[in-house]
Amino acid sequence: MSCRVRFWGTRGSIPTPGPQTVRYGGNTPCISVSGPGDRLLILDAGSGLRALGHELMASRREGLSADILVSHTHWDHIQGLPFFKPLSAPGNSFCIFGAAQEGVSLEEILRRQMDPMVFPIPLKALAARIQVVEIAEGELPLADFRVSAFRLRHSGTTLGYRLRPSAGGRDIAYVTDNELGPGGTYPVAPDWRSRLTRFLAGADALIHDAMYGEQIIEARRGWGHSTPREAVDLAAEAGCRRVLLFHHEPEHDDDALDRLLAETRDYAARAGYALSVDAAAEGMEFDL
Ligand SMILES: [Zn+2]
Ligand SMILES: [Zn+2]
Question: How far is the CA of 61 from the centre of ligand 2 (A)?
Answer without folding.
Answer: 33
